[in-house]
Amino acid sequence: MTSDVAPANGRAPLAANPSRPRTFSGIQPSGVVHLGNDLGAIRNYVALADQYEAIYCIVDYHALTSTHDADALRQQTREMAASLLALGLDPDRCTLFVQSHRPEHAELMWLLCTVTPVSWLERTPTYKEKVQQQPDDVNHGLLTYPVLQAADIVIYKASMVPVGRDQAAHLELSREIVRAFNRRYGETFPEPKAVYTEAPVVLGTDGVRKMSKSVGNTIDILGEPDLVRKQVMSMVTDTQRIKRTDPGRPEICNVCQLQRFFGDDYEDLWEGERTARTGCVDMKKVLAERIIRHYAPARERYAELMAHPTEIEGILEAGADRLAPVATATMAEVKEKMGLR
Ligand code: TYM
Question: What separation in Å is there between the alpha carbon of 290 and the centre of ligand 1?
Answer without folding.
Answer: 24
